[in-house]
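chain below, 155 aa
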Amino acid sequence: MDGLDIIVWVVAVAVGVVGEVFTASFFLIFFAFGAAVALLLALMGVGLPLQIVGFIGASVASMVILRPAVLRRLHAGGELYEGRGSIVGKRGVMTTAIEPGGSGTVRVGSGEFWTARAMYPGERIEPGSQVQVLDIDGLTALVESVELKGGGRGS
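prediction:
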């Protein structure tokens, strides 16, 4: 059982870093940081209970202190992120279909992807359809097909 904690923390660091690379959420990296702190504690011979406390403490502290600063710095320059309200009224293109009562994905502006639901729950919107963002519900864009808005058929 000796050394198993080191292996667990190395795997946790790797999973956090790889997960962050694939999601770019600036969320998993802070758990990877906490796992790295716990790994250092394990390498110093500290017991498992203190490793867990170190993991939780470092994860929470880095998320509370570093995450807002990192996000602020990223959003300060260029066109990295459209704010929630700034996409309302913009047009986009559906990249995946919205089934009645379900959700899909819409590309808005210069390539930002949002989860989308149809404004009218029974509506199906096909991939490639032009839509307009009417509102935001949390992190989901509520969209309406431009063809429907323009009178139904044809474009």
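Helices lie at 4-23, 28-43, 48-76, 146-149. The first strand starts at residue 91 and ends at 94.
thats it, cya
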